[in-house]
C-alpha cells in the first residue's frame, strides 16, 4: 500500500483525482483529509481511559473523521466511559485493559489495532485531535516514529508546573546524553508510529514510564524519529493520576536500566528483537 500524501487540484476531490490517475485503484482507498490532501495508510487511534466519561466528548470532537479506527482501552471504569464512547463513535473498538497502569493499557491497545499507523491520544482532553494530520504527515514523509513535543518550536503546554518542567528537562537531557537522542521533550504521551515499529522494540513496563521507554528504544533500534510540535491543554474534568516525584523516579529507573542493557548488549552477540504484547478482551 502506498504511503504518500497526494495533492489534489483546487476544488477536486482527492479520491476522484487519484482514481483518474490510476484507474485500477478504488477511490475508497483514499481518505480525504482536506480539499487538497488524501492519505492511503489506515490510521488507528488508541485512547487509554479510566473514568473519563466527562472528558470523552471533548476528545472525540477533535478527532478527524478520516481515521480508520478508534481503539478505547478501558481500565475497568466505574462510570459510563464505555457507553459514552460508543455513543460518540459507534464503530469504536473497546478493549478491556490487561493490568492496571498506562503502559499496560497502551500495550493492550496496540495489540488490537489494525491500522498501518498508530496514534496515542490521552483521554483527559489535553490533546488536540486536529494535530493528528501533522503526525501522519511526518510518518508518510519518511519518519518511523513521530514524537510530540511541547517544547519544539510551535509547541506549548498549559499543564506543567515549574517543578515538572525542570524534571522533564533534566530527564530529557540525560536521555539525549546517554543514548545520542536529540529530543526537546521526553515525558509526553501524544505520539504516532508505523505499526511495524513494534517488531523492533520491546514494550514491557506498566506505568507512565512507557512513553520514555518507547522514546529510548526507538533510538536504540535505529528508527527514524521526527518531533512534531504539539500543544498540551489543561485536563478538562477530574484529577490526573500522575505523581510528579514518584513517576519521575520510575522514569529515571527506566533510563538507568536501559543504559545497563545497552552496555551488556555490546559485550555479547545481538539477539533478535521481540515485542511482548499481552492482548486484552476486545468488544
Describe the structure in your own words.
The chain has 283 residues and is α/β, with parallel strands linked by helices. Helix content is 33%, strand content 17%. It has eight helices and 13 strands. It has helices at 14-21, 56-61, 81-88, 102-112, 132-140, 162-179, 210-220, 244-266, and strands spanning 6-7, 31-32, 37-39, 43-49, 69-74, 93-96, 117-120, 145-149, 156-157, 191-194, 225-229, 231-232, 281-282. It has an eight-stranded mixed β-sheet with strand order 11-8-10-7-4-5-6-13, sandwiched between helices. Strands 1-3-2 form a three-stranded antiparallel β-sheet, covered by helices on one side. The longest helix is centred in the last third of the chain and has 23 residues, at 244-266.
Short synopsis of the structure:
The chain contains eight helices and 13 strands.
Could you name the key traits of this structure?
disordered N terminus; globular
Beta-strand percentage?
Answer: 15-25%
Report the C-alpha radius of gyration, rounded: 19 Å
Instruction: Decide which structural class fits the backbone.
Output: alpha/beta
Sum up the overall morphology in one term: globular
**Largest beta sheet: strand ordering:** 11-8-10-7-4-5-6-13
Distance between the termini: 28 Å
The average pLDDT score comes to: 84
Q: Low-confidence segments, ≥5 residues, pLDDT <50?
A: 1-10, 14-27, 272-278
Name the helicity range. 25-40%
The helix-strand sequence is EHEEEHEHEHEHEEHEHEEHE
Q: How many E strands? A: 13
Largest sheet: 8 strands, mixed
Q: How many H/I helical runs? A: 8
Amino acid at each position: 500500500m502506498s504511503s504518500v500524501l497526494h495533492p489534489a487540484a483546487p476544488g477536486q476531490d482527492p479520491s476522484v483525482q487519484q482514481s483518474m490517475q490510476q484507474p485500477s485503484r478504488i477511490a475508497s482507498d483514499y481518505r480525504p483529509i482536506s480539499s487538497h490532501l488524501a492519505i492511503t495508510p489506515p490510521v488507528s487511534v488508541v485512547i487509554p481511559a479510566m473514568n473519563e466519561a466527562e472528558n470523552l466528548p471533548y476528545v472525540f470532537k477533535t478527532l478527524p473523521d478520516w481515521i480508520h479506527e478508534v481503539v478505547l482501552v478501558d481500565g475497568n471504569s466505574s462510570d459510563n466511559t464505555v457507553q459514552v464512547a460508543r455513543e460518540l463513535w459507534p464503530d469504536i473498538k473497546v478493549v478491556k485493559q490487561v493490568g492496571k497502569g498506562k503502559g499496560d493499557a497502551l500495550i493492550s491497545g496496540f495489540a488490537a489495532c489494525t491500522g498501518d499507523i498508530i496514534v496515542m491520544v490521552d483521554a483527559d482532553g489535553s490533546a488536540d485531535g486536529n494535530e493528528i494530520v501533522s503526525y501522519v504527515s511526518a510518518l508518510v514523509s519518511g519518519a518511523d516514529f513521530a514524537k510530540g513535543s511541547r517544547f519544539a518550536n510551535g509547541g506549548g503546554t498549559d499543564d506543567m508546573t515549574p517543578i515538572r518542567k525542570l524534571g522533564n528537562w533534566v530527564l530529557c537531557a540525560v536521555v539525549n546524553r546517554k543514548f545520542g537522542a536529540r529530543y526537546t521533550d521526553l515525558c509526553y504521551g501524544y505520539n504516532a508510529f508505523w505499526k511495524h515499529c513494534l517488531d523492533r522494540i520491546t514494550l514491557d513496563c506498566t506505568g507512565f514510564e512507557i512513553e520514555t521507554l518507547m522514546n529510548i528504544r526507538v533510538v536504540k533500534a535505529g528508527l527514524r524519529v521526527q518531533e512534531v510540535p504539539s500543544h498540551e491543554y489543561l485536563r478538562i474534568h477530574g484529577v490526573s493520576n500522575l505523581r510528579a516525584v514518584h513517576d519521575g523516579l520510575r522514569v529515571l529507573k527506566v533510563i538507568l536500566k536501559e543504559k545497563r542493557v545497552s552496555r551488556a548488549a555490546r559485550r555479547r552477540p545481538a539477539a533478535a528483537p521481540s515485542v511482548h504484547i499481552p492482548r486484552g478482551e476486545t468488544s
